[in-house]
Amino acid sequence: MGIEVKKDADFSTWYTQVLKRSEMLEYYEEVSGCYIIRPLAYNIWQEIQSFFDSAIKKMGVEDTYFPMFVSQRQLEREKDHVEGFAPEVAWVTKAGSSDMENPIAIRPTSETVMYPYFSKWIRTHRDLPLKLNQWCNVVRWEFKKPQPFIRTREFLWQEGHTAHFTKEEADAEVHQILELYRQVYEDLLAVPVIKGVKSEKEKFAGGLYTTTVEGFIPTTGRGIQAATSHCLGQNFAKMFDIVVEDPNALANSEGKEAKKLHVWQNSWGITTRSIGVMVMIHGDDKGLVLPPRIASVQVIVIPCGLTVRTSEEEKKRVEEKINDVVKELNSAGIKAKADLRDNYTPGYKFNHWELRGVPLRLEIGPRDLKNNQTLSVRRDNGVKEAIPLDKLTTCIPETLNTIHKDMFEKAKKIYDEHVKVILKWEDFVPALDGKNVVLVPWCEQEHCEDKIKEKSSRRQPEDDKAPSMGAKSLCIPFEQPKEPAIVPGETNCISCDGFAKRYALFGRSY
Ligand SMILES: O=C1CCCN[C@@H]1CCCn1cnc2cc(F)c(Cl)cc2c1=O
Ligand SMILES: [Mg+2]
């Protein structure tokens, strides 16, 4: 069944229908906020995993696995890390019919699970750097309206946790990982992202600073945090006593213990939210549009032009040709499939595979055999092109790469057009209402951010609808607008009478 609503008319229904009818996901009626990730979507997660995991292996990161349960005592060892999150922690309180002596939390993230062991394992600077990663699920009992992939109570992610001897080494890794997240989005999912650092209010409270890749959903005009790479500083090292002796300090004369140095730590994560972002950005009114590099079926080959007058041997010849084409493409590393179901018309099959986002369709019929060609049809823009049957293994990879590039460029152009540089406060909210995010000179003070959120969530004067959601800071982009340049001590903050430090990206967000 096709999609019954237009993407721009009813986005949330469109999103749900696309995910269900393309067989990416199934609703899990038993528990609100949980969903079944079906093979088409799970394959995308596996593509992301294999790309990211092979990249971090080259950085010397090792995969590991820690228990999903954490005691209340451990979880609460880091007060300000947990207090804001306490309402979303899921607890196991019973085993069978008997209450547990001490309830156990299901991991919402694994700092407090892992770091007592970091403390145990890291004794000397030779144990550094320690670089561990785990691919797992986490549970956060969010109360905001759940949305498949975007906000779910259980999600899959990877969480990297590293310990370094120097801040410089930690800083370098934070940015190396952030660059990998950019590649996951831009080179795999064809989704443009903006790199930047989070404000003091938006960063991970337990850390020193948070870097992020920020996405943009044009249909709603909202920003979305796409992945994060935190430098934790020495905060967790101090809390969990993760220390090494100072190798440079000579054992001093009284033979006292050499000075203990706290390690510098990072933690970084990307989640299955990335799948939802990709669907929201590339999908259209016919359904999914999959970027070729993560599509489990990249090319679908369909027999056409067969009529009741076509002889049996002619039909057989077409089908044999199609099977040969699929074999040839697969041996060239292209994921191709044939749809030879003889109880469906070509038109039905076109819709079936367009709904599932297959990047390229090849039509082959009796005439094509005669002309030794096939008609290719691109899913992203519908462009048709005749390809000689003896040029497939060169033309098809090129076409798939062109599809990726065009999908990315199209999304990037839209993102860039919806980032408005705003220099006067009166233009701020109208820009947000125009489904944009805004780039503004900003003082970077937390109280100012609170004020901006409040001022931009004003109640619409003409109706008593719920106030429009306020804007939050999304990031301070590493790439700053060249002009108008911010002159320290001269350029005013967009909102308060303080001076602007840098341009910050603000917007309504997920
Ligand atoms: O974002 C990442 C990447 C991967 C490893 N972790 C960090 C920080 C996670 C912050 N965070 C995020 N959400 C949380 C929810 C909770 F219920 C509790 Cl108790 C803690 C947290 C929490 O610390
Ligand atoms: Mg949260």
TrEMBL record:
InterPro entries: aa-tRNA-synt_IIb, aa-tRNA-synth_II, aa-tRNA-synth_II/BPL/LPL, Anticodon-bd, Anticodon-bd_dom_sf, Pro-tRNA-ligase_IIa, Pro-tRNA-ligase_IIa_arc-type, Pro-tRNA_ligase_II_C. Residues 42-291 form the Aminoacyl-transfer RNA synthetases class-II family profile domain. The keyword DNA-binding does not apply. CDD domains: ProRS_anticodon_zinc, ProRS_core_arch_euk. Keywords: Aminoacyl-tRNA synthetase, ATP-binding, Ligase, Nucleotide-binding, Protein biosynthesis. It catalyses: tRNA(Pro) + L-proline + ATP = L-prolyl-tRNA(Pro) + AMP + diphosphate. It comes from the Eukaryota. Its EC number is 6.1.1.15. Pfam families: HGTP_anticodon (PF03129), ProRS-C_1 (PF09180), tRNA-synt_2b (PF00587). Residues 451-470 are annotated as: Disordered. Residues 451-466 have a biased composition (Basic and acidic residues). Belongs to the class-II aminoacyl-tRNA synthetase family. This is proline--tRNA ligase. It comes from Gigaspora margarita.
